[in-house]
Amino acid sequence: MRDFVLNAAHELKTPLSSILGYAETLAQGAASDPVMRDRFIERIHANARRLGRLVEDLLTLGRIESGRWPIERREVRLREIVGRLFTSLQSEAEGRHVRLVSGLGASDAVRADEFALEQILLNLLDNAIKYNRDGGQVTVSSCRGFSSGGNGTRAGRGGGGPP
């Protein structure tokens, strides 16, 4: 539990420090330069969204731990979920010069809890962007043939590295 708390604090501290740094720079005069102001405001928004996702992850973990998270399995269209996630992660990807690519078709679907699947994919995509190389790519595609006989989704960094 101690390691979890330390890791959570570190994950929360990083975007918060960025927000404070950008806000202080704006307050000290960078706001008068429209290009800098717009770039800093976008970074503040991106880091605030990241903080929101981290807090949501902690709340979700709390619901899971308490047993108050009902699993609702249904057919979920992967392209819709990945499209929403790409939209919410676009500014982070652009900030790291990472291209987001979907290889999903309209009929690609799995039977899953949509909220849980979205949280899992969000964490995978966030890490794929965060730990990617400058100018890299994150590709999401689906495949058949898992041992359970179902469909699966794969998110990879491109460039031959492990997904």
Explain what the structure shows.
The protein contains four helices and five strands. It has 163 residues and is α+β, with helices and mostly antiparallel strands. The chain folds into two domains: 2-66, Signal transduction histidine kinase, dimerisation/phosphotransfer (DHp) domain (Helix Hairpins); 73-156, Heat Shock Protein 90 (2-Layer Sandwich). Strands 2-4-5 form a three-stranded mixed beta sheet. A hairpin with a 6-residue loop joins strand 4 (137-144) and strand 5 (151-156). The chain starts with a helix and ends in a 7-residue tail after the last strand.
Helix and strand layout, with pairings?
Layout: H1 2-27, H2 34-66, E1 73-77, H3 78-95, E2 99-102, E3 109-113, H4 114-130, E4 137-144, E5 151-156
Parallel strand pairs: 2-4
Antiparallel strand pairs: 1-3, 4-5
